[in-house]
Amino acid sequence: MALVGKKAPAFSVGAVINGEEIVENFSLAQYIGQKNVILFFYPKDFTFVCPTELHAFQSKLAEFEKRDTVVIGCSTDTEETHLAWLMTAKDQGGIEGVTYTILADVAKTISLNYGVLGGEYSFDAVTRTWSFSGAPIAYRGTFLIDKEGIVRHESVNDFPLGRNIDEYLRIVDAQLHVEKFGEVCPANWEEGKAAMQATNEGVANYLSNN
Questions:
Q1: What's the CA gap between 108 and 136, in Å, rounded?
Q2: Which of 21, 59, 126, 164 is the most exposed place for a label (fewest CB within 10 A)?
Q3: In this structure, are residues 105 and 118 in contact, taking their beta carbons and an 8 Å threshold?
Q4: What is the CA angle 166-171-173, rounded to 5?
């Protein structure tokens, strides 16, 4: 079920912050009323596409921060595994140098609540056993959560498909433009380009000039 337009599911879990410190009970609540949040899920530490994405988010971190936006990563690995990966050099497949928070969704509840877990649990009432079908890891889900805690964008990629981080900067820019000017952002809109009023006259004026 889509989360866009709804309150982002809350979480409070262990995490690694600043690329080096394990903390308990890292929560989304601390950003409500304070910051926009890009929350992104990835399948596993010590894998292949994943480090390219985590480094790509890091390379754009200052751009997100200029937009008053926090970046948070999340996978179903433990805090200790995150830390070990953070201590591994980039030329060895590691993510040394990543400084944004990485959540440890060990119970898989965050992935479930955001609809990105790559499989499903089922319970057999006869044998009274749980089973899981699919992959018990997160798809490459990405969510923009505004300062009020509302999800404004979500996208989900399959495991082999890496993300374009610049697109999420564009999405943040669009959300900020809507909030500031009350206009809507048409197809292929980028910061500095014309937006439009959400009226018949507005769309007519926009299309006549573009």
A1: 8
A2: 126
A3: no
A4: 95
Report residue 201 as tokens.
């006259």
Q: How far apart are the first and last CA of the chain?
A: 35
Dihedral angle sign, alpha carbons of residues 74, 76, 80, 82: negative
> Of these residues, 37, 39, 50, 74, which one is catalytic?
50
pLDDT at 119 over 90: yes
Complete DSSP assignment for 55-90: HHHHHTHHHHHHTTEEEEEEESS-HHHHHHHHTS-G
Separation between Cα atoms, residue 65 and residue 61, nearest integer Å? 6
Q: Is 74 an annotated catalytic residue?
A: no
The amino acid sitting at 209 is N
Q: Name which of 83, 12, 1, 95 is nearest 47 in CA terms.
A: 95
Residues 6+ away with beta carbon under 8 Å from 89: 96
Beta pairing partners, 123 = 130
pLDDT, tens digit, 9 for 90 and up, residues 147-171: 999 999 999 999 999 999 999 999 9
- Model pTM score: 0.97
